Amino acid sequence: MKAKKNQNPAGETLLRARDAAVQLQISYPTIKQWIYHRKLKAVKTPGGHYRIPQSEIDRLLYRTRGRNEGERRVTYQRISGRNQLVGRVVDVRVSGLVAQVTLSVGGQLITSLITSGAVREMQLKKGQTAAALIKATEVMIIRV
């Protein structure tokens, strides 16, 4: 099924409520309640239908995927790393043996270089949901 997409005046992609619910892995009635209670920003069409900006889906994506540690562990691979950031694939570039994959996580972009074989094996495509696993010996914080 191809998601029907429109664009708002700002040029941002707008999704039907049902398609947004599928991306967030929640029920259609839940997304309607979120719209009514203003937990989710939506645009009302002249015909009375709701369209949800892709940025709103991205904002909520990591919250709905990792409601608690137990649910996240069932959804994704059981691994020791705790720094899993769930987001939407916004770009996949394959060049020879290397691929560059960019995820949008809560409005921030994370880019990773992986093998092109891994991209093919996982069948990564723009618009899909994926998780970035951060493994580092040091994490630095900068006040902004």
List the defining traits of the structure above.
four-stranded antiparallel beta sheet; Multidrug-efflux Transporter Regulator, Chain: A, Domain 2; alpha+beta; 5 helices; OB fold (Dihydrolipoamide Acetyltransferase, E2P); 144 residues; single chain; 2 domains
Summarize the structure.
The chain is α+β, with helices and mostly antiparallel strands and 144 residues long.
Note down, in words, how this protein is organized.
By secondary structure, the protein is of the alpha+beta class. The chain folds into two domains: 5-65, Multidrug-efflux Transporter Regulator, Chain: A, Domain 2, CATH 1.10.1660; 84-133, RNA polymerase II/Efflux pump adaptor protein, barrel-sandwich hybrid domain (OB fold (Dihydrolipoamide Acetyltransferase, E2P)), CATH 2.40.50. The chain is 30% helix and 32% strand. It contains five helices and eight strands; from the N terminus they run ββααββααβββαβ. The chain has helices at 17-24, 28-36, 54-65, 69-75, 116-122; strands at 5-7, 13-16, 43-44, 50-53, 84-95, 98-105, 108-115, 129-133. The strands form two sheets. Strands 1-2-4-3 form a four-stranded antiparallel β-sheet. It has a four-stranded antiparallel β-sheet with strand order 7-6-5-8. A hairpin with a 2-residue loop joins strand 6 and strand 7 (108-115). Helix 1 packs across helix 2 (28-36). The radius of gyration is 17 Å and the shape is globular. It starts with a strand and ends in an 11-residue tail after the last strand. Residues 66-75 have low confidence and may be disordered.
